[in-house]
Specification:
Number of domains: 1
Order of helices and strands: HEEEEEEEEEEEEH
Radius of gyration: 25 Å
CATH class: Mainly Beta
Strand content: 35-45%
Shape: elongated
Structural class: alpha+beta
């Protein structure tokens, strides 16, 4: 390898900021989630701003509502020092979108790594999809993440994903109800016939 080939990435890193290894991340605690139908599923939202502490910001989470039903988000499981006055649980604004999960460490900032909180879903149907996150588009829902060391500078976040798979047998409840009802009607008919004879 030539000296030029070795120095080019080093000079680029010095001129344009920290390397990818110091990139801010927000991820799920599990990258692969397997569940059975009707299971309650919990997954932690994790953050690591070690290379550049954050004042805070917001993100949106996208899921498949035909497979999972959103139950709640709980900051109570966090191991970080969060400013809960500036943090907010997400709202369900579209069938597949949890908007504005925002967290902040106040003016001291937070670096992590740590757990922001816990998402809870219920598996309502069999299927598979990928749970994803992205920067929030609404300023009132936390806005972009801002650096605590370089004020007013937006941070670039590497967001994680989680593959969700729900298996199980879907019992056709209406068919079971009709079968049960027809059995009852048959027994009632037999009982009525015995009474009249």
């Amino acid at each position: 390898m030539s000296v030029r080939g070795f120095l080019a990435p080093l000079v680029g890193a010095l001129l344009f900021g920290t390397s990818v290894s110091n990139a801010a991340t927000v991820t799920f605690s599990n990258t692969s989630i397997a569940a059975n139908l009707n299971d309650i599923i919990t997954v932690d939202v994790m953050m690591d701003f070690t290379g550049d502490p954050t004042l805070g910001g917001g993100l949106d989470i996208f899921y498949e509502p035909s497979i999972l039903s959103f139950v709640s988000f709980d900051f109570g499981t966090s191991d970080l020092v969060l400013d809960l006055g500036l943090s907010r649980a997400p709202d369900v604004v579209a069938p597949n979108k949890l908007e504005g999960l925002a967290f902040s460490g106040g003016f001291n900032g937070i670096a992590g790594p740590g757990t922001v909180g816990t998402l809870t879903f219920q598996a309502v149907s069999v299927g598979a999809f990928t749970l994803t996150m992205a920067d929030t588009t609404e300023a009132l829902d936390g806005g972009r993440f801002i650096s605590a060391t370089d004020f007013f500078t937006e941070q670039t976040i590497a967001y994680g994903t989680a593959d969700v798979s729900v298996t199980g047998t879907v019992v056709p409840v209406p068919a079971a109800v009709w079968l049960f009802a027809s059995g009852l009607m048959g027994l009632t008919g037999v009982a009525a016939k015995r009474k009249t004879v």
